[in-house]
Write a structure and sequence with these properties.
Blueprint: H1 3-22, H2 38-45, H3 58-67, H4 72-81, H5 84-89, H6 91-99, H7 115-118, H8 128-139, H9 143-155, H10 158-174, H11 179-193, H12 199-218, H13 220-230, H14 235-247, E1 251-253, E2 265-266, E3 271-273, H15 284-293
Parallel strand pairs: 1-3
Antiparallel strand pairs: 2-3
Helix pairs in contact: 1-12, 1-13, 2-12, 4-12, 8-9, 10-11, 12-13, 13-14
Length: 294
């Protein structure tokens, strides 16, 4: 699913690094980007996420507008929340209200020991990994045992759940937690396990989303040139990208047989030259021959 985006980022970074090399700057290394870049989060909060991996649909833009992400953890939560279960269950509304401090009495972490586990998600059990961590922290489960619990909650088999509830109660009792509190936490885990998303999956998607947004805000010409080269055969997509680029302050130069290439080229920070390959009736071989002869 992310291969096209990886190609776009790779093409954009090659262009950026060629410019950096020409001006004696060190190359851009995407894995070392700071994860707290203010302009990137500002872009997200303005919902200017067209062509940003996983964050460009109309529904996702609406969720971003309401949630207003300002940390990488918030982007991970966006990816995990944008699914039918959380959206229909009221979980999304609860998460947003908690993030913005719109609930009375502060955030309830169920038990003081669970604050480190639930703090990143404002007390909401959002990820499968949190279900496993709660079992570890409150009931002394091993990691393997916690994974079995996660699987049992996903399958919702009554007999298996009854066994797990007793294991949870017994483990909690050894840590001085009474049965009423143990059952309360177990019931919540069981309720949210149906909606729980795999955090490592969401984090991988979110990293790609963050990298895409970072390139868009800091190197817009390279970003749009790479995107439009990938979408060169789809005129509707090209039109959509061009309109978004113009609203983002990027201008376009017409195709130039004396200077252009097969793909779209950035010429300056906010100018893109139209790719010769996007002209109907041209072929890659013919254009490469023109470029070679030139």
């Amino acid at each position: 699913l992310g291969l096209r985006t990886l190609t776009i980022i790779d093409w954009a970074v090659r262009t950026i690094n060629a410019e950096r090399a020409a001006s004696g700057e060190p190359p851009l290394d995407m894995p070392t980007l700071p994860m707290n870049d203010a302009p990137t989060y500002s872009l997200l909060k303005r919902c200017e996420t067209t062509a940003v991996f996983q964050l460009e649909s109309r529904g996702m833009k609406d969720l971003i507008k309401r949630l207003q992400p300002d940390t990488f953890e918030d982007i991970i939560a966006l990816v995990a929340l944008f699914r039918p279960g959380p959206l229909q269950s009221g979980m999304v509304d609860d998460f947003i209200d908690r993030k913005h401090g719109r609930i009375g009495g502060g955030i309830d972490y169920l038990h003081p020991d669970l604050k480190p586990v639930l703090f990143p998600t404002y007390g909401v059990i959002l990820y499968q990994e949190q279900v496993m961590q709660i079992a570890q922290v409150l009931a002394g489960y091993t990691l393997g045992g916690a994974d079995l619990l996660r699987r049992a909650m996903g399958k919702k088999k009554a007999e298996e759940m009854a066994q797990q509830r007793q294991i949870f109660r017994d483990g909690a009792a050894k840590k001085g937690i009474d049965q009423r509190k143990a059952d309360e936490v177990f019931d919540l885990m069981e309720k949210f396990a149906g909606y729980g998303f795999n955090k490592s999956h969401a984090a991988a998607y979110s990293l790609l989303a963050y990298h895409t947004a970072w390139v868009k805000v800091h190197h817009p010409a390279a970003f749009y040139a790479a995107n439009m080269t990938v979408e060169m055969d789809d005129t509707d997509k090209l039109r959509s990208l061009m309109n978004d680029a113009k609203s983002f302050g990027v201008a376009f130069e017409p195709p130039d047989v004396n200077a252009g290439d097969y793909g779209f080229d950035p010429v300056g920070e906010r100018r893109v030259r139209w790719g010769l390959g996007a002209i109907k009736g041209t072929g890659q071989g013919a254009i490469e021959a023109i470029v070679a002869a030139r």
